[in-house]
Automatic annotation (TrEMBL):
Name the record gives this protein: LHPL6 protein
Keyword Zinc: no
InterPro entries given in the database record: LHFPL
Chief place where the protein resides: membrane
Signal peptide: 1-21
One cellular-component annotation, GO: membrane
Its membrane topology: Multi-pass membrane protein
Native source organism of the sequence: Smithornis capensis
Transmembrane segments: 87-109
Keywords noted in UniProt: Membrane, Signal, Transmembrane, Transmembrane helix
Amino acid sequence: MASSLTCAGVVWAFLSFLCAAASCVGFFMPYWLLGSQLEKSVSFGTFRRCSYPVRDESRQMTVMVEQCGRYASFQAIPSAEWRICTVVTGLGCGLLLLVALTALMGCCVSELISRTVGRVAGGIQFLGGKWMCGEGMGLSR
């Protein structure tokens, strides 16, 4: 099994994969914000939520649904900022995962990654990381 990466490149590939996997798990988990509402523990992320209030028309009151789920549609995400965050974070995760998987393939295939490709991949990772932090869209403070 030939490799087109140096020892530093192999370490970069595995660390890139671990970071991309952690970013994707964080993106899909609904634990970005934790709190309580109607004396129940609630949490939500960009497109998932756990323990959320709904209006029960038969009893004419608000009740808590104690389960996790995603929003029914993109427009059901509570605000435009959260929708932008969902898109930007998803794109960042996609870029990071693409580069990480390409780097891992470089561990197994000779002449897959050249010095130029490595530099471009590093730039893409930087861009993906900036998007993950919200700086790519001017969302950071």
